[in-house]
What we know:
alpha/beta; five-stranded parallel β-sheet; 13 helices; 41% helix; globular
Amino acid sequence: MLSKILETQKIILEDFQATPFFARDCFAxxxxxxxxxxxxxxxxxxxxxxxxxxxxxxxALSGNAVYLSADSFHLSTGGLLAxxxxxxxxxxxxxLCIDEIHKYPNWQQELKNIADTYRQFKILFxxxxxxxxxxSAYDLSRRVTLHHLYGLSFREYLAFYHDIHCPRITLDELLxxxxxxANALKVPQLLKHFHHYFSFGYYPFFKIFTHNFGKxxxxxxxxxxxxxxxxxxxxxxxxxxxxxxxxxxxYITHSLPGEMSVSKLASHxxxxxxxxxxxLDYLEKSGLIHCLYPMQSGKxxxxxxxxxxxxxxxxxxxxxxxxxDDAVIGKVRETFAINQLHNAGHAVFYSKVGDIQIKExxxxxxxxxxxxxxxxGVYNAYVLADGILSGNKNIIPLFxxxxxx
Length: 405
């Protein structure tokens, strides 16, 4: 088993080293000093890239670490625990890098057994956003440090795809100094890049495609695998239920936020309220949608979101030509704002006054001619306007949210 794993690893790592590595700023925030560290995130946002880089940094090619995919055929002959035992007794390797660990049966128990028995071992794994170690029967919550990886921010997109480097800013800097920040940027065709990011900028894998058709297919494939592999496996669901979940996701992607409620979705799908609420939870935890709730509410809110959006704007462009529809481009802008704020660590809520609310502020989102009429007189309220390079007072260019991450 071990020799086959090492042969496969050598091929994968040498191929990986032949391509340039983009070190995202967030990678420096991932601390790997715990015995078990997990990197969670949706499909296509770079988890495997980070894991391969970590394996190389740990000198895997010299035998000090081992990289493998959890669904590797070679594991079927012994399993993770047997592999760890062989590595511990026969080699100097003390680090296992396991990709997509949720695909391995009984992974929680085997990680616990490895951690208990081979305390010098470090384990770094990647997994779907949906894994739940807190409710695990094997008490992994105290043993595992979890980090979450998201797709590229607009700032990272500029660096990764165009070698254009902009400073990372905080939300406080955005709200208090947006005019000086915008004026200091020297980015040719900035709005052209920004609007391209809306459609094809969130996923690092776009770089391997030369045509938009390939990019669109890649998003569709990632979505299908999330529903029919990740959600199906983690919740032991059959095809009829998965078809309903896919239909629910497509409905959210195509509909305007104001058109939806859980009751309406349940009626549209011919399902009961509780089932649809559960399916929405699956989609949100898998990284396919965002649900917005009021800031002031109890536990019941988790069953009844007031607005629902795709997780990022690229998901909208998979099937909708948003640039030709004012209503849909409005949804794209809101999706972008929620995505960038959420990925930068801010909890985003539904707002009765503006479009969205965070703890610090209320935001109304629109195009270049959007005014502050709707939020006039509201404390700490701002307009996020698309189509402008610089704002004034409480009118902020929408693209600046993309510098938060």
